[in-house]
């Protein structure tokens, strides 16, 4: 089966690897152009572009699927196109190029969480189960019929980054199975039914923690915005970022935003909320790297410094 692979970020690399290992004839890889990264703003290939180069696959780099790109695709004699987090819309003219159309791997259980940040919103809104689906791409936003799905349990300490890593693996195997079934004439796509929800792009504002809210709500917001853009709270003009948070239902005597450091060989950090305390596992103080919360607490105790997130 001759296919195009379209994708850009790290979460799409597993799918490219599995499709290549499964023996698909990957005619080309479509990805977004090199982007400036780091303090020096060095132009850097996307993770998918870097992996495609390692595999010796032809590359098409474009931020949009233009008429010129569509002409390039028409010349490839494609049976299907597999798309995973490409980062751009596919116009109707391009959708009709492959014989079997475009098969999208989307990291949610459609029709829930259509859009750019499904896993993040799934965690923020407290879903116990999330997953990934393969579906026939249409011009509508994630509206096409579904071929198959995989599910994953969301554990208390799972962040969006952790869930996406797991789903990128299980989802990539689903994508391989879907394309194999399509090639064999066995694939059946079922229309989406029921109500739907949307998952717009996550912003820095979404990642701000308000410790006057209930602990479970704060934990979900923190985990849904980790690692990007990163959960944070301000102390004056300074920002503190947080890694995963544990709920401490046994600690209810702290005011909202009040910080307590429990001394010991591995000091514990506790922050009060509207319900019970939260225990950060990692903290990034202003101007420093993310560190274990116990190491930060040890330094705070040595300095005799006090901080409040109220």
TrEMBL record:
Residues that, per the record, bind (6S)-5,6,7,8-tetrahydrofolate: 108-111
All copies of domain Formyl transferase C-terminal, residue ranges: 201-300
The keyword Protein biosynthesis appears for this protein: yes
Catalytic activity, as annotated: L-methionyl-tRNA(fMet) + (6R)-10-formyltetrahydrofolate = N-formyl-L-methionyl-tRNA(fMet) + (6S)-5,6,7,8-tetrahydrofolate + H(+)
Keyword Oxidoreductase appears in the UniProt entry: no
Parts of the chain that traverse the membrane: none
Enzyme Commission number(s): 2.1.2.9
Pfam family, one: Formyl_trans_N
Keywords associated with the record: Protein biosynthesis, Transferase
A molecular function (GO) term: methionyl-tRNA formyltransferase activity
InterPro entries: Fmt, Formyl_trans_C, Formyl_transf_N, Formyl_transf_N_sf, Formyl_transferase-like_C_sf, Met-tRNA-FMT_C, Met-tRNA-FMT_N
Residue stretches making up the Formyl transferase N-terminal domain: 1-179
Similarity annotation: Belongs to the Fmt family.
HAMAP family documented for this protein: Formyl_trans
Role this protein plays: Attaches a formyl group to the free amino group of methionyl-tRNA(fMet). The formyl group appears to play a dual role in the initiator identity of N-formylmethionyl-tRNA by promoting its recognition by IF2 and preventing the misappropriation of this tRNA by the elongation apparatus.
Protein name: Methionyl-tRNA formyltransferase
UniProt source species: Glutamicibacter protophormiae (Brevibacterium protophormiae)
Lineage per the UniProt record: Bacteria, Bacillati, Actinomycetota, Actinomycetes, Micrococcales
């Amino acid at each position: 089966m001759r296919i195009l692979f379209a994708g850009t970020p790290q979460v799409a690399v597993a799918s490219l690897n599995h499709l290549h290992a499964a023996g698909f004839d990957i005619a080309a890889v479509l990805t977004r152009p090199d982007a400036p990264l780091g303090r020096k703003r060095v132009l850097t290939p996307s993770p998918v572009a870097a992996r495609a180069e390692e595999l010796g696959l032809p590359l098409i780099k474009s931020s949009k699927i233009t008429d010129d790109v569509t002409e390039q695709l028409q010349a490839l004699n494609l049976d299907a196109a597999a798309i995973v987090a490409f980062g751009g819309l596919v116009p109707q003219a391009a959708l009709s190029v492959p014989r079997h159309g475009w098969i999208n791997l989307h990291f949610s259980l459609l029709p829930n969480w259509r859009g750019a940040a499904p896993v993040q919103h799934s965690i923020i809104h407290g879903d116990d189960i999330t997953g990934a689906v393969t579906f026939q791409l249409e011009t509508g936003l994630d509206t096409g019929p579904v071929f198959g799905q995989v599910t994953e349990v969301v554990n208390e300490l799972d962040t969006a980054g952790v869930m996406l890593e797991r789903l990128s693996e299980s989802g990539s195997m689903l994508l391989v199975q879907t394309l194999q079934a399509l090639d064999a004439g066995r694939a059946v796509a079922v229309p989406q039914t029921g109500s739907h929800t949307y998952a717009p792009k996550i912003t820095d504002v979404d990642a701000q923690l308000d410790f006057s809210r209930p602990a479970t709500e704060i934990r979900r917001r923190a985990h849904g915005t980790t690692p990007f853009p990163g959960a944070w709270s301000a102390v004056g003009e300074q920002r503190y970022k947080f890694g995963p948070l544990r709920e401490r239902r046994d600690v209810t005597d702290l005011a909202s935003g009040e910080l307590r450091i429990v001394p010991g060989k591995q000091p514990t950090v506790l922050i009060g909320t509207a319900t019970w305390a939260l225990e950060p596992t990692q903290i990034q103080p202003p101007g420093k790297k993310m560190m274990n919360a116990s190491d930060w607490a040890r330094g705070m105790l040595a300095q005799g410094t006090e901080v409040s997130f109220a």
